[in-house]
Design goal:
- The structure is a single chain.
- The chain has 21 helices and 22 strands.
- The N terminus and C terminus are likely disordered.
- Strands 13, 14, 15, 16, 17, 18, 19 and 22 form an eight-stranded mixed β-sheet that branches. Strands 3, 4, 5, 6, 7, 8 and 9 form a seven-stranded mixed β-sheet that branches.
- 39% of the residues lie in helices and 19% in strands.
- The chain starts with a helix and ends in a 7-residue tail after the last helix.
- The protein has 638 residues and is an alpha+beta fold.
Length: 638
């Protein structure tokens, strides 16, 4: 018996090693097939669940390259210069040679692996384990204050010295903040659900059909639970303790854990709205031009404010925290509200442009020093007095919103709404929204099964209509700046134009989409030069999808800034790679006559417009143009 226990412990030790995880990463990197990647993960997760279930949580975080839930804000993303210093010091290599190698291969992780491979050691170091690597990464992330850089380098060196084979490559990629192996979080969720099913021995007796149904149901359950409670810290222990069909009973949404917000599809005409909601009840709301804010109140009265990216913005809005009691009725104890925070002119009692809100301080905000005031416009109640409402129709959620809260002047308002299926009424309401300094309308399914709140989903049950949809592609895009061109003439001292890209979450690539040189003020160009010059890199990242006949800028940047851009229309191009493979095997989609609108400080690069969305814009445009040609006249856009 003692021998068996000892053997089991040895197996567990092998399974805990970081090398096993890196081996799985290597397999994922060497294939582009989603099913194969899922199978590799399922195999790994099943072994861990069977032998070392306590290590599943850390292992999963390593797979998605996170250190905890998004709302905790714990991130790595360490700069290349610091990582190069650590690689140089841990391998004894010359910095100049390291930089030369990096320019050649474009991947610092591979440079680190090759540098380790050429290094001779007297003794083989003790094998790295997943828990040790995970803990060390967290320690590196929280280091601040004096000598922070040197302390981080010391810890990184400690990991690199112990690396074997492929481990150095993935240690560096963990530290950079991106594994770049095509391991999307939705794939990890799917693999996790399947692994839980396969690890239950009773399920092996099921027929193939029953097993497939069970797997599909498990994946749907895990993804649904994660969308309304996005924290593995709660989900993983529950999965290991309870049957998967009971998961929702033990993992329910609650204040303090922000949901991924529901998003809307753009539409180009009011007739399109009526076609979508034919024979269904819908409602129209003002679309406010501000910052999405999810307001949470715990049972103990604690208030938290979260952004659309689950960032805790409570310190940015002390005025909201101090005003909550005024607009919460006595019967309301806990809640989660979906709101829009807009810049507000108290004297005039009106909304100010988004550009004004963007000037408000983001850190160390003291209420007495605030110069840009905000008002909240609440449009949804997702949780109330201990109960989730997201499965309730919007009609019921709005009733709860009005019953439980009250408007307070200059601080808290309900989103203006109108319920009508008359196109003339909607047109009038759209005009009223514009006159009230809003962007347009949100049109939402109001009653029935299609009127539930769908976290993290861009749903056609919500449509957005803007006044400027009368021209152009029907919606703006949020694109990432990855390069710049030297300015000429009066732009000589700044960058004159920029290379932009959309994001493909499946491949984790930034795909080029256009060169942008219009819509800028002189102040914009100077600001962009001052902020982006600190993020210049020697060559494009290996995860920049450029194509063979690529547009090549004079300067390359780290993907750090997101801009809102509008254009006249979209076209297929051999020089840009947005949505490549979706409309053409080798060509992508580009923007014609793009113009800069604003900086999206509320979005990180991975929240940019996706390649799938760009493709949808293109196909929608093609459909509309086809209809125009068929009708022999231009469509009537409202």
């Amino acid at each position: 018996m003692a021998i068996i226990v000892h053997l089991l412990e040895l197996v567990k030790m092998v399974l805990w090693t970081y090398a096993i995880l890196c081996n799985t990463f290597e397999k994922c990197e060497n294939t582009t097939k989603r099913l194969e990647i899922t199978e590799y993960l399922v195999t790994l997760f099943v072994k861990v669940i069977e032998l070392t279930p306590d290590g599943l949580l850390e292992l999963l975080y390593m797979c998605i390259n996170k250190l905890g839930p998004d709302y905790e804000g714990l991130e790595l993303g360490i700069g290349e210069s610091l990582l190069m210093k650590a690689v140089a010091q841990s391998t004894g290599r010359d910095m100049k040679q390291l930089k030369s190698d990096y320019v050649k291969c474009g991947d610092l992780g591979t440079v680190a692996k090759n540098s380790k491979g050429s290094q001779k050691t007297l003794f083989k170091p003790k094998a790295l384990t997943v828990p040790h690597v995970f803990r060390t990464l967290k320690e590196i992330a929280i280091i601040t204050g004096n000598s922070a850089q040197s302390k981080k380098i010391d810890k990184i060196k400690g990991l690199l010295v112990a690396c074997q084979d492929e481990e150095a490559k993935f240690i560096i990629r963990h530290l950079e903040g991106k594994l770049r192996i095509g391991l999307a979080e939705q794939t990890v969720l799917s693999a996790l659900a399947q692994a839980v099913v396969f690890s239950n021995k009773d399920n092996s007796k099921l027929s193939t059909l029953k097993k497939e149904e069970l797997l599909a149901s498990a994946v749907e359950t895990v993804k649904y639970v994660y969308n309304q409670l996005p924290t593995y810290d709660v989900i993983i222990p529950a999965l290991l303790k309870y049957p998967i069909e009971e998961l929702l009973e033990h993992c329910t949404m609650h204040p303090g854990v922000p949901l991924k917000p529901m998003l809307a599809h753009p539409t180009k005409s009011l007739t399109e709205v009526l076609d979508r909601f034919e024979n269904n009840t819908f409602t129209c709301e003002f679309k406010y031009d501000g910052e999405r804010a999810q307001i949470h109140r715990h049972e103990d009265g604690t208030i938290s404010v979260y952004s659309r990216n689950s960032e805790n913005m409570s310190v940015r809005y002390p005025d909201i925290l101090n005003a909550v009691d005024k607009w919460v009725k006595p019967s309301t104890t806990s809640f989660i509200l979906d709101c829009e925070a807009v810049a507000w002119d108290k004297e005039e009692g009106k909304i100010l442009p988004f550009q004004v809100l963007s000037t408000r301080k983001r850190k160390d905000v003291k209420e007495e020093e605030i110069t840009v005031r905000v008002a909240l416009f609440a449009f949804d109640c997702l949780y109330l007095n201990g109960k989730s409402l997201i499965r309730e129709p919007l009609q019921k959620r709005r009733e709860k919103l009005y019953e439980s809260f009250q408007e307070t002047e200059n601080e808290f308002y309900f989103a203006k709404h109108m319920d009508s299926n008359n196109i003339e009424d909607i047109q009038t309401f759209l005009d009223v929204s514009i006159a009230n300094y809003c962007e347009g309308l949100m049109v939402k399914s109001f009653d029935g099964s299609e009127a539930t709140y769908e976290p993290s989903k861009r749903s056609r049950n919500w449509l957005k209509v803007k006044k400027d949809y009368l021209t152009g592609i029907g919606d703006s895009m949020d694109l990432v700046v990855i390069g710049a061109f030297y300015g000429r003439g009066k732009r000589t001292s700044v960058y004159g134009a920029f290379l932009l890209a959309c994001y493909d979450p499946e491949t984790e690539e930034y795909q080029t989409i256009c060169k942008l040189g219009t819509g800028f003020s002189d102040e914009n160009l100077q600001m962009f030069y001052d902020t982006l010059k600190d993020h210049v890199i020697e060559k494009p990242k290996r995860f920049y999808c450029l194509g063979e006949n690529a547009v090549k800028p004079d300067i390359w940047f780290e993907p750090v800034q997101v801009w809102e851009v509008k254009c006249a229309d979209l076209s297929v191009s051999p020089r840009y790679m947005a949505g490549v493979g979706r409309v053409d095997p080798s060509k992508g989609i580009s923007l014609r006559f793009p113009r800069f609108i604003r900086v999206r400080e509320d979005k990180d690069p991975e929240s940019a417009t996706t390649s799938e969305q760009v493709s949808e814009f293109y196909f929608n445009q093609a459909n509309l143009q086809g209809n125009n040609h068929q009708n022999g006249k231009n469509m009537d856009y409202y």
